[in-house]
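re: that chain from earlier
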Amino acid sequence: MTVRSVRAAMNCMGLGTSGDVSLMWNVFGFRQARPPTDPVGGATVTMSLADTFADLSGRHVNLNMIAVGFDGLSAADRDRYVNSVDWAAFRMRQIYDGAGIGVGRVQHYEIAVADARGYDDIGDTDEADDLHDEWGVPNNGIDAFFVRNISAASGGGGLLGRSPIDGDCEKDSKDDGLLAGGANNTDSDSVARTFTHEVGHYLDLEHNHGDSCPTAVSSRRNLMAQTRCVPLVSGTTTPDVRNAVNLASSQGSTMRDHCMVKGGC
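^ sequence. v structure.
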């Protein structure tokens, strides 16, 4: 069934229809309650209600975007990273659409530094795994944690994100969330790719290579190639993360079968 109204969309998202409705906050799921800006060129992105409703009519995932320790950031760093988080949600809609998966409800939560028990600064993979053992949202969305810092000094220098492969669908279990990135990542496209890559792991995708990077350029541009394997932007030493987001049809099939992917409504 195709969703044809904002009211129907809200019901499909499980948000209810009482009170005021903000399209930017409630339906599109932007933390800023406005569209993010594209890091390349700075243009404000445009959203389509028709496309968002179409996402809900097919297979889709719900997301909980959980900010950890953002109150410990400067105002400028907070604004920058919040735009990156919204850009990540926008890019995930684009990237997963090609795999036949929509993005449904996107809700935002925040854990203050004073309540985070040190998990606002992730030092290694064990802490990344412990984060979602300690916290979670009791609903049917994937819990994605964005932290104030991933500390290189504590051994997390090579860590961008962390997720179980084939994450659990029962909340309060060991593998019921993922680390989506840290605010010390200043590149919005990198934040978006890390987030979308880690959600791919949660939906049962492994890296598309072993210990060595794939040789084929097309494989290195796959979303599930590690960042170290991504081709460089021409004439630079910077990985071209913006364009390394492809998904094979078989990967889409695997993700669509995961229990966190909802049927259409």
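The first helix runs from residue 6 to 13.
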